[in-house]
Amino acid sequence: MCGIVGYVGGREAAPIVLEGLSRLEYRGYDSAGIAVLDASGILTLARDVGKLSNLTSRLEGAYPPGCTGIGHTRWATHGGATELNAHPHVDTAGDVVVIHNGIVENHRELRDELVFAGAVFRSETDTEVIPHLIARELTIGLNLEEATRAALQRIQGAAAVLVMRRQEPDVLVAARIANAGGVVIGYGEGEMFVASDLPALAGHTRSVVFLDDGDMVRVTATGATYSRLSGEVLTREPQTVDLENTAIGKGVYEHYMAKEIAEQPEAVLDTLRGAAQFDPPAVFLPGLGLDDDAIASLSRVVVIGMGTSLNAAQVGRIYMEQLAGLPAETDNASEFRYRRPIIDGTSLVLAVAQSGETVDTLEAMHEAKRRGARVVAICNTPGSQATRIGDGTVFLRCGPEVAVASTKTFLGSITALYLLACYLGEKRGFLTGRRLGQALDDLARLPQLIGEALKSDAATLAVAERHYQSEHFLFLGRGPQFPVAMEGALKLKEVSYIHAEGYAAGEMKHGPIALIDAAMPVVAIAVKDDHYTKMLNNIDQVRAREGKVIAIATAGDTLLPEKAQDVIYVPEAPTLLQPLVTAVPLQMLAYHMARLRGCDIDQPRNLAKTVTVE
Ligand code: AGP
Asked: Which residues lie below 8 Å from residue 470, measured CB to CB, with a gap of 6+?
């Protein structure tokens, strides 16, 4: 959730830390703060509420001096978005400085204990117990690394922490416990970096080490030493990562969301590249981590995820059934991990997570592994935790997604799930040569079809102009379009703050129909597939109650303009791949509505791109 950046080296730390934070702001934007130490141990702290720009404009031209610094963008969990609650936090004497991503679950009892011992708390955060705990350990003669280790052993919950101390001005200590989000160490020439995500390192280094759960690191300008929280010393060799696409801008677009919607044909093409071969038909998934025997032994698939990734998982379930011939189900990762799922070595759990850092999904993966299931991540982020927990990974290759509302990774995840279903289907003898060839030929047309769907932008804007003042929306779909209806509603909620619900259209008459009146626009995904006639029934039922229908229709449909007030056309596509086409105008609809309502599209209120707390 929160973004973390640290620097130690020969250059001024503040501009480097602030620049790194600007690339992580999508993780949280309730407040931001930095702390900088100079060689003589003078500490300067600067924090501000709201977006990072508030802090940067305040510091402009007067950066705090010093070559060691840490910074944080916050997504509030404990305590409101105030300056006092913004990170970094310090101990009573102002010697130990901490930034933190995660939740300290036992913070109340620790706070009581520390206050009793004389600690002065200045914020309402759970985080503030950490500098006080470290300070207490320092009083018995430990150094910063040792004191941090001792302090973190008292903490229950999730924590990625970055710490510095006035008396050790050339040292940073970082640690990661219990799936608190990533910590990556970047190696420069005579300088070192710490960050929660790779984008913060772009332009500085490609040589990195990712901390595992329970790892600690002591970083100076010349290198890093690694250990476990238990004290065991570790050897970690830096690996080289591809950061080429990481330093990204909005280009000609006003918002990242618009840019990322427009990038979708390319995102899907890149996901296919190297994985799908059309003649002769074949799928290559070298990172899958399942051999032929494991694939043959599978009895079922469970596809899990959260938010948009869960909606993609719902489409994936259909692929597993229809292309791989495997019984399949979906679940919210947050529910799956606690419902004592009945799975074993013949179960394949697919964890969909664009970031690869969503804590609910990571914990569900661990739970699946504990129960002996095969676990594969469907992920957009190389090096992320999800890619390291499972047996293997199928990557979507969408490039970094910056807008908090996911768009291109929804399509990328669905594409990756389709490839995987074809792969499993072929290996299991379910998808024979001719059917595999057809399935892949269908896929080959996809980037072009998505490009066609993008041409509905003007029509979508016109619809948005008619409806942007509505306060409620209903989205209906059947079969593969049901998850798209869910995703359309999710996108609208997220960026425009309009109340929206997605339903399986068959469900409409079992309750939601009571909501329909002249003030309730209903988006009906009524493309020409096996469910078309049933969708027409739904539309008639909405019209009979004076509801306003916005139909998503197949190009050339002449019936729907007679039934619906608004029609947005998409190109005809193979039924199983149609969700990747119909999702596009719904994303654009949400975008235009939000823009017309003056919303903060790329950083909607209360949300964060990567949710690393439960
Ligand atoms: C989607 O627009 C949201 N940002 C959110 O629902 C997101 O899909 C969810 O948090 C899951 O993220 P993940 O794919 O990184 O696991």
From this structure: 498, 519, 520, 521
